[in-house]
Every structure is written in C-alpha cells, then in structure tokens.
Design a protein that fits this description.
single chain, 86 residues
Length: 86
C-alpha cells in the first residue's frame, strides 16, 4: 500500500487540488451548477437588467439597496449598473 501511494503521489495531490478548487467555487457561487434555480429576476421590486450577469446579481442588489437610501430609484439603478458592468 505504501509503494502505491509513493508512485501516485502527484496524481493524489492533483486530484485533491482540483476537488478543493471545485468545492471553493461551489461555496462561493461562481459555478452555474451552484445557482440552479436561484437566478433572481428582480431585486427590491426593480427588474435586474440583462447587462448584469447572474453571478453579479447579489452585488447588484447590495449596491441598489445602498444607493436607494441616498438617491432616487432611476439614478440608483444607473449608478449600480455602471459600477458593476464597468
């Protein structure tokens, strides 16, 4: 058993690395697989523009929530789109 591990040490490390990366991306929400059924169409009663990728919807909603406290709705929407898309 010990010689089998020594011979395949590189492959074990590589597979562990790939699995760790996949788990991290799933937790972070960057893989499409992790967002199945969670794609939001609107945030705070405002439709999410098509320019915003589905991985950016949470950031857009947070931005919109903060901007609506200080500005009117139309200006807040355009500010958040500019911040996220650019």
């Amino acid at each position: 058993m010990g010689s089998l591990i020594k011979k395949n040490k590189f492959m074990i490390v590589f597979i562990s690395f790939v699995l760790t990366c996949l788990i991290f991306l799933l937790i972070k929400g960057e893989l499409p697989l992790s967002q199945t059924g969670n794609i939001e169409k609107e945030c705070l009663g405002v439709n999410i523009p098509e320019k915003i990728k589905y991985t950016q919807t949470k950031t857009y909603c947070n931005c919109l929530k903060n901007e609506l406290n200080y500005k009117n709705e139309r200006h807040a929407i355009s500010t958040c789109i500019d911040k996220i898309v650019m």
